[in-house]
Amino acid sequence: MSSLEDTWGRERLVATLYDFGVHNPVVGRVAALGLWGFDIRRLFSSIERLRDAAPGSRVLDVPCGGGLAFGGLQANHGLDYTALDFSPVMLQRASARMEKLGLDGIRFRQGDVGALPFDDGSMDLCLTYNGVHCFPDPARAVREMGRVLRRGGVLRGSLVVRDAGLRYDMLIALFRQRGWFGPGCSRDQFMGWLGSAGLMVRAVDVSGAFVVFEAVKR
Questions:
Q1: CB-based contacts of 66: which residues, under 8 Å, 6+ apart?
Q2: What is the pLDDT, as a whole number, of residue 152?
Q3: CA nearest to 193, candidates 140, 136, 122, 131
């Protein structure tokens, strides 16, 4: 059984296949619907809201993966944007996607979401798409993301949750065994973690085993 560190930190095949799927509209839509009962267009609607961020906003994208959230950026975005990921493979892919999209003004950092290298209240917006279910300690990660947000700052993202149906739970168990997923959580657990981190849920969209959410720092 592969560990999370091996899967996302060293194995290029898994990272490459995942990255291809989420960036290919047809493949991504079929895979999301077939695996998780989720219409991936809901995810992209959330990502597109990044374009509403005011110039100069301090944005943390964690895990940035292969640059999924970059699809919400405009060429002249004017944001103070940091993309952080544990995986050097994903950081390489994210950097390549930045160049492909003709973007600039993005800083890349390798780091641990469980110990974010940023001061308390230093971020205006935190994005965490498709990462919470992969984190080795998701509760701690949520606390860290809440910590670095300023009062009134926004956490926006998506995750796969347990207890949404037997077939989804069986698939999650398989992915955990393969080292692709971490311990994860149920929807109720996740909402509880947000509250404990000082975050108030402002919007939540549940489809199959997928949750797309937005929360604001009290």
A1: 15, 18, 19, 22, 23, 90, 93, 94, 97
A2: 98
A3: 140
0.85 exceeded by the pTM? yes
Place of tokens 């509250």: 195
What's the pLDDT score for residue 3?
56
Average pLDDT of every residue of the chain: 92
Assess whether pLDDT exceeds 60 at residue 79: yes
111 CA to centre of own chain: 14
pLDDT at 9 over 50: yes
3-state secondary structure of 31: helix
Query: What average pLDDT does the segment 26-52 reach?
Result: 91
Judge contact between 159 and 130, C-beta under 8 A: yes
**CATH number for the 4-217 domain, one of 3.40.50.150, 3.30.420.40, 2.60.40.10, 3.40.50.620?**
3.40.50.150
3-state secondary structure of 131: coil
| 177 strand-pairing partners | none
**DSSP code at position 165:** -
Domain boundaries, the chain: 4-217
The token pair that represents 84 in the structure block: 């952080």
